[in-house]
Design goal:
CATH topology of the largest domain: Butyryl-CoA Dehydrogenase, subunit A, domain 3
Distance between the termini: 51 Å
Number of helices: 11
CATH class of the largest domain: Mainly Alpha
Shape: globular
Number of domains: 3
Strand order of the largest sheet: 1-4-5-8
Radius of gyration: 21 Å
Order of helices and strands: HHHHHHEEEEEEEEHHHHH
Structural class: alpha+beta
Helix content: 40-55%
Number of strands: 8
């Protein structure tokens, strides 16, 4: 199925019509979520035989790009559910069934969210400040603070991880598992009052002894970089789908810029601003930037789907894609505002909202500095200790 079939124009129009209100009210996108659930969108990665669309990462990336043209904050939050279902799909394709239950439960209507981010943890998936304490029978108790937990008002399954410092004979072990909405021992802090991406309602989640039973502990990994398929799958889905959201945001900004310059007229010359050579240059510059981004996402997603083996070069490719998308989107929104005039500076302008939303791109892992370090290490080797 095409993105237009899965997210038809009439659905996209409804979602776009609500985006400004969610932003103004700093409110979660309950109505968007209900529409997307009814459309089967949260089952995008679920195999067709289990009631889903059975889409590839490339196909879901195109859908996320399309959704983000209507409502970037909605698309960003939905990404977190799609990351987990996409990870499960990638693992299955590689013969790993450890997250089969994610696809089964997503097919049944469960909503998954990502509870891994921690303030100041620049090691991302390779270390954790959350304490995972082993319990009898293989369960673990988790204590820590998770930030940017998108879908906070709606998730029914939250993926978390923490460190068991005594694991692996004292070297430490990273423990991954899922809690449910009904699990005791966590609190959601109502602290999401941000510059942009407001509808995502990515509240802080405090784990205070939340227990994950043994059958929901799905991975134990060493502290530090590793080549486990789970690590690759999370990076591949997260970076590709995040890039798709910001690509859609940039695409919308370019469309708005074109519409705006065709409506504006120079009092001095009487011509539409679309005839002004400086404005034409800015529109062309934005369009060329976007044209370089579209095939980049498709190429990376297609290689993930095909199981292409780039070895350790995979991580530079993935973080490079994310930075390319978020930085390109920022540049394009900036150009769009420059050519659209002072009205775009006022609250309520869609470009004003996109300008605030696009800034969130710099905070998603990997950030600009970390990504450049990863790529430099791949090409030049690591710095000496």
């Amino acid at each position: 199925m095409s993105p237009e079939e899965i997210l038809p124009d009439v659905l996209l129009a409804r979602i776009r019509s609500r985006a400004a209100g969610y932003d103004t009210d700093n409110r979660f996108f309950h109505e968007d979520l209900a529409d997307l659930v009814a459309a089967g969108y949260l089952r995008a990665f679920v195999p067709a035989g289990e009631g889903g669309f059975g889409l590839s990462l490339e196909e879901v990336a195109l859908c996320q790009r399309r959704l983000a043209t209507a409502a970037p904050a909605t698309a960003l939050a939905i990404t977190m559910h799609l990351v987990w279902t996409g990870v499960a799909r990638i693992l299955v394709a590689r013969g790993d069934t450890s997250l089969d239950f994610v696809l089964t439960e997503a097919a049944a209507g469960e909503v998954f969210a990502f509870g891994n981010s921690e303030a100041g943890n620049d090691a991302v998936l390779f270390d954790s400040g959350t304490v995972a304490t082993p319990m009898a029978g293989g369960a673990y108790s988790f204590n820590g603070i998770k930030i940017f937990t998108s879908l906070s008002p709606a998730w029914t399954r939250l993926g978390i991880f923490g460190k068991n410092a005594s694991g692996r004979t004292g070297a430490g072990e990273l423990v991954h598992g899922f809690i449910t909405r009904e699990t005791p021992g966590y609190r959601i802090v109502d602290d999401w009052d941000t510059l942009g991406m407001r509808a995502s309602q990515s509240h802080t989640t405090i784990l205070e002894g939340a227990v994950v039973p043994a059958d929901r502990i799905f991975r134990k990994l060493p502290v530090g970089p590793n080549s486990d398929p789970l690590t690759f799958a999370i990076f591949a889905c997260f970076e590709t789908l995040i890039a798709s959201v910001y690509t859609g945001l940039g695409e919308r900004a370019l469309d708005l810029a074109v519409l705006n310059v065709k409506k504006r007229q120079s009092r001095r010359t009487g011509l539409d601003y679309s005839q002004d050579p400086d404005i034409r240059w800015r529109i062309a510059d934005a369009a060329m930037s976007m044209d370089a981004l579209y095939p980049h996402i498709i190429h990376v997603a297609r290689d993930v789907d095909a199981g292409t083996d780039y070895g350790q070069q995979w991580f530079p490719k993935l973080v490079g894609l994310k930075v390319h998308a978020t930085e390109t989107a920022r540049k394009v929104v900036d150009q769009a505002i420059r050519v659209s005039g002072g009205s775009s500076y006022f609250r309520g302008s869609e470009l004003e909202r996109l300008y605030r939303d696009v800034l969130a791109g710099m905070f998603h892992p990997s950030d600009d500095e970390s990504a450049h370090g990863t790529v430099a290490n791949a090409w030049l080797g690591p710095l000496p200790d």
